[in-house]
Amino acid sequence: MESFRQSSPFLEKVREAIRVRHYSIRTEQAYLDWVKRFICFHNKRHPKDMAELEVAQFLSHLALDRNVAPSTQNQALNALAFLYKAVLDRPLQALQGVVRAKKPQKLPVVLTTEEVGRLLNELEDVQWLAACLMYGSGLRLLECLRLRAKDLDFHHLAIFVRNGKGGKDRVVTLSGDLIIPLQRHLGNVKTIHERDLASGYGSVYLPHALAKKYPNASVEWGWQYVFPASKRSIDPRSGITRRHHLHESSIQKAIKLAVRKTDIQKPASCHTLRHSFATHLLERGMDIRTVQEQLGHKDLRTTQIYTHVLNRGGNAVISPLGSILNLSRVDE
User: Class assignment of domain 105-313?
Assistant: First the structure.
């Protein structure tokens, strides 16, 4: 069979099928990785010589031997289903005997308002602003980093999240306390953009449909990233030199360092700020469906998990122990 290296003709065929359908670069990378793992697991046999049985064996291996999360196993299945349908023109039929990955649902890590304050105090500049948006608006990390200048509506205190998880758009709240810091930050970003234009650059990535419909939009101010990278880079697909958004690792490292400095004894991360946003809204009496819309959850049950970490419990249950202890003290 062809080599499964990055330059493999077979993998190039898979990559071409992905790009024709305008899938994201992250989906491309993930699908190619799963195809390579599938091939390696079966001793480098060509996928055309395998079928449902081998796919089922690989998926079961992920659950039994690698102990992956259900979402990871589902991603592997999606990648292989794409491979057989779009590349080999032989859609997978029903898979028999697949051991499904199962992991108990864990409660999200949530910081107190005091801990959030301490965490933010350890951050500066861009990292502080990004963390404020993740906590203040319940944004996922990539949703925050992918914001464009035109997505911020200061007049209505709103943020337009485009193509969020599941390809959905939504509108979330913007804290009025961030208006001045954001406007100052955007002033600096606009200066960078103008310098890029003067140097013959200034183009930014646009989704395929938009790039085709509005060919000049990529250099317009409104489409520039709110959090641009410090350096220009070459787009791996088009070969065009552009200024992309900040890499998520820069924010993740800053948050991790801040947690360590504040001595917060919780495994907090960027996503913890989003969890804390939801929990604190519910603690303040916000309607759970409103919180669901802010977070962009498809299913209300996903949002309901935050009720289990509220100060008074999911059903506002108060333990009877206190009244018994108080009575015993009176008797004494």
Answer: mainly alpha
